[in-house]
Design a protein that fits this description.
By secondary structure, the protein is an alpha/beta fold. About 40% of the residues lie in helices and about 10% in strands. Strands 3-2-1-4-5-6 form a six-stranded parallel beta sheet, with helices on both faces. Strand 4, helix 8 and strand 5 form a beta-alpha-beta unit.
Length: about 210
């Protein structure tokens, strides 16, 4: 392999459980009670698509998409500030291994670029990444493969030379659809169905380079 594309939330940082909790708290604030299992399918989707899905799921058409978006952001920012979030165990060692082999390293995430860069810099791993691709870079979000193909193009590599590390159902579908070797990462507190991936791992140490 000459390159690796990382998903962000749930692969580099175990932030998905924080996001889902922020969704539940926001929904509660507008009078909607839900559970983690009912909103888990949102993981991997872009925020605009999440807001549309929430409108449909809970009949929230009296709330604008902007209201739903900024409401979630408010609760997510608050929870992130009070959390003790850390990089996934073994991440730094794995990135160092990739660097030793002169691999091109990218992030391809539905999250915003500013959020991605901020966390990578906060935990001193930003320097390892050659490319940051956010959901705003492409027309269609996961489970469509657009974001991974866009990242591949920026990397200047062939499909057969790049692996994708993903943890979400939507991300795995996008990875497989892209034609690249897709690894289902199961190190997150939110366990998802990654059975469609080429292989499944529970830790970065299990990934051979």
């Amino acid at each position: 392999m000459k390159g690796v594309i990382f998903d962000f939330d749930g692969v580099i940082f175990d932030s998905e459980i924080i996001y889902l909790e922020s969704v539940l708290q926001y929904l509660e604030s507008i009078g909607v009670h839900s559970t983690m299992s009912e909103v888990q399918y949102l993981i991997g989707m872009r925020m605009q698509e999440i807001c549309v899905a929430l409108q449909k799921q809970f009949n929230l058409y009296n709330h604008s998409l902007d209201e739903l978006r900024f409401g979630q952001y408010e609760y997510f920012d608050r929870l992130m500030e009070s959390s003790d979030i850390q990089a996934m165990p073994g991440l730094s060692d794995f990135l160092a291994r990739c660097k030793e082999k002169n691999m091109t390293i990218a992030v391809a995430s539905s999250s915003g670029e500013e959020y991605i860069v901020d966390l990578l810099k906060r935990f001193n791993v930003y320097e390892y990444f050659h490319h940051i691709v956010s959901g705003s870079c492409v027309e269609h979000g996961k489970p469509q493969p657009d974001i991974f193909l866009y990242a591949l193009n920026k990397m200047g590599l062939n499909k057969e030379d790049v692996m994708i590390i993903e943890d979400s159902v939507n991300g795995i579908k996008a990875g497989i659809a892209s034609g690249m070797y897709t690894i289902g990462f199961k190190g997150s507190k939110i366990i998802q169905d990654t059975s469609q991936a080429n292989i499944e791992v529970h830790a970065f140490s299990e990934i051979a380079l």
